[in-house]
Inverse folding.
């Protein structure tokens, strides 16, 4: 399975509608953009995101200057491609922003249970280690001892130390202690695995906020399951509103997903997708490149 599979074929039909046209105008862009709209909805991009996107494409396409030798169909492809890329955050991948004052960079990982948060903690640790950073993982899910054990097992597997206090203490306090330990031991990055719950509730958000404050976190990354499609948009908006995230990690992009979440996250939160998870293994994490995702969508 591949996200956006079949999308480029559908879109080829859209561009073909412009065959024989001399320019792009308010009349002739309607039908192809309707195809684009349908394809995006089928890919499970959330409706408000699609609406705004199509409106922007239409505004930009109509009145585009005709260049000699460039067919209107190609012009519309270019226009949609540029807008898609912009929708996902523009150029290059945005990784972790490291502190440069000698203090450890603190990364909070947030998200609902089962989205792949703990796995992402391990993957990110490994990726940072490969960049030459020392990492400390911190387990704060005091409600699920199994989650703490899972992180410890991952840590052992990839050779990254894990700080935990079992199920004692409260998450902000445990996280703050972890950060202090990292400072004492001159560790570059602290990755805090926070508690996941089945639903967004006030308690989860309150605790996350408190953990963020207690650690002066530099990054708050929301881990989002790509399989949840347009649900991902709503979820991202809620987390961002409650705790202000700095970015997202989109997991399970290798699964049977239609990919829509990749297009919604930025639009609803203003925050970039920084990485994608593309498998269960520890090395299955990739930086997110909007332009590559755009080529994948348009073929
Ligand atoms: P958490 O409850 O959010 O901490 O979720 P876990 O990290 O325990 O992951 C839940 C399940 O999703 C596990 O079976 C993981 O192996 C799996 N998983 C996590 N990330 C990915 C991914 O990028 N691709 C695939 N295919 N599976 C993943």
């Amino acid at each position: 399975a591949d996200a956006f599979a079949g999308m480029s074929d559908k879109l080829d039909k859209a561009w073909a509608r412009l065959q024989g046209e001399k320019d792009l105008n308010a009349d002739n862009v309607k039908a192809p953009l309707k195809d684009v709209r349908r394809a995006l909805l089928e890919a499970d991009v959330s409706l408000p995101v699609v609406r705004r996107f199509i409106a922007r494409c239409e505004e930009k396409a109509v009145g585009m200057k005709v260049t000699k030798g460039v067919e209107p169909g190609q012009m519309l492809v270019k226009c949609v491609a540029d807008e898609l890329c912009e929708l996902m955050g523009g150029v290059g991948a945005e990784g972790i922003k490291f502190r440069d004052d000698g203090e450890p960079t603190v990364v909070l990982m947030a998200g609902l249970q089962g989205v792949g948060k703990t796995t992402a903690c391990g993957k990110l640790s490994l990726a940072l280690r490969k960049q030459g950073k020392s990492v400390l993982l911190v387990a704060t899910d005091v409600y699920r001892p199994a989650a703490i054990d899972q992180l410890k097992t991952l840590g052992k597997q990839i050779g990254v130390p894990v700080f935990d206090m079992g199920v004692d203490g409260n998450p902000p306090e445990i996280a703050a202690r972890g950060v202090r330990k990292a400072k004492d031991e001159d560790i570059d990055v602290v990755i805090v695995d926070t508690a996941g719950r089945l639903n967004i509730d006030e308690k989860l958000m309150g605790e996350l906020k408190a953990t963020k404050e207690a650690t002066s976190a530099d990054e708050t990354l929301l881990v989002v399951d790509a399989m949840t499609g347009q649900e991902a948009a709503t979820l991202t908006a809620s987390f961002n509103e409650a705790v202000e995230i700095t970015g997202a990690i989109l997991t399970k992009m290798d699964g049977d997903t239609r990919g829509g979440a990749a297009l919604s996250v930025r639009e609803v939160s203003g925050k970039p997708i920084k990485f994608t998870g593309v498998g269960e293994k520890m090395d299955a994490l990739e930086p997110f490149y909007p332009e590559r995702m755009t080529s994948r969508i348009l073929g």
